Amino acid sequence: MAITINSRIVRLALGCIQPADASAVKAFLMKAFKYDANLISENSVQDIFDQWSADGEVACVHKKSKLYTLTRHGDSLLNREERRLRDRTRLFLLKELRSAKLNLPEAGEPEKADASSAVIVDHPLQESERPTGAGRPPRVARRTARACWPLLAKQLFVGSSSRASGPFFRFLSFPTIKACAQANGSAEIPQDGIGLGEISLAIGISPQLIGLLIHRPERHYRTFEIPKANGKVRAIQSPRTMMKVVQYFLLDYLLYNLPVHVSATAYSRGCTVKANAIPHVGKRYVANIDVEDFFPSIKSPLVHRALVMGGLEDKTAYLIARITSYQGGLPQGAPTSAHLSNVVLYPFDKAISDYCKAVGVSYTRYADDITFSGSDKDAVCNAVEKSKSLLAKLKLKVNKDKTRVFGPSSRQVVTGVVVNEWAQPSREKRRKLRAELHQAKINPEQYATRADELRGMSAYMLSFASEERAVGGLSRGYVESSLAKLTEYINEMKAKGAAIAPPSEP
Question: Which of 47, 368, 491, 492 has its CA 20 to 30 A from that of 219?
Fold first, then answer.
């Protein structure tokens, strides 16, 4: 016998997992309150949705699948305690969704294409079409497609059901930005751009919470220091969960297609220190300069101006600049800072790239590391001075201690990669890895806890190798045999049920 469901509980459940249908809300209530499946009628939940839809409390965002999302009116009917509970639950679920850590139902296998938190989709796809692509957390390649997060309710409850191949939405809880604006009470997208109301509605949280993120950001960051190679420390401002999820939403849904110059070789898919170094291989002169306090020096007004130049409306740009800044600059540790730094420096990259092309100098920028190379020393040095002048207009200062010009008789280094004859890591790094692999092969028990670290270092080193040339004596066969010995030891210990512990100090 079905029980009468409190409509306030249904509204809270929908707010936590929207967009969702009646079956997903039923499943959420069963999980949250340990109800027996026979006690909740899916039809009664659907009847509530139908009434709310007529009253303007929810919007049917996908008619075929009967998916519903709260409108601004419906969201306002949550009381203070319900909003706080919904906001916290929603943001922590979205965090796990985006990082591909949501646990799918025990019964049944998830669809292979939906095992991750997001997929890359192309612009032509429509609301009813299914995106394709390998499952992965969203890392959008520059100037290509947008990352859409899958339906939260689907990832939680659908599993291997035939309904798992449902729609994706272009604005998280809504199929379009226009639909979100309409749910917020506007007939069309506001001419001055979407604001706090639309963004909070799309994420599915209270606008009051985003207001707190803006006006009291210090409560939503964890600050700490890490050592730098020169003996100094670097201050890190890492956003906490609520701030981080909002910033991820902005990155994936609003910032993904802002222009980034091809000379900026950091923070985009396929961009590596090797790709940054290759344009400078075999050049007679190589010059490096470094920007001081890179992220904190990129101030909020610079970000706002760059976003407007990139095509965002003024109100939207201003809101994004506020949410993504900390103490007036970009926080070192926020997921949005890297992409925004490339967006802000797009005019600089374009201007200095055009100048270098005209004078026969190669130019790349890897975050705050700027490199020039060419056969004419004067041309390279002039490019350095030109870049200092352009950076000064952005109120960015060059670190004089890290400004270097390498001649043909010196070791030329670009972002840690030696480029005199071909691109390869420094001799010190090669020798250190070779020694550690040798010891790991002889004494695997000493390196068992560092197996992943050694694999990562080896993969990085081998990325510079080719079939004709090893990297400093580190052939692929030697590396693979050393790691195989280490893996064999780890598997033996696991088979015995023995714990792998770091060696004790003498």
Answer: 368
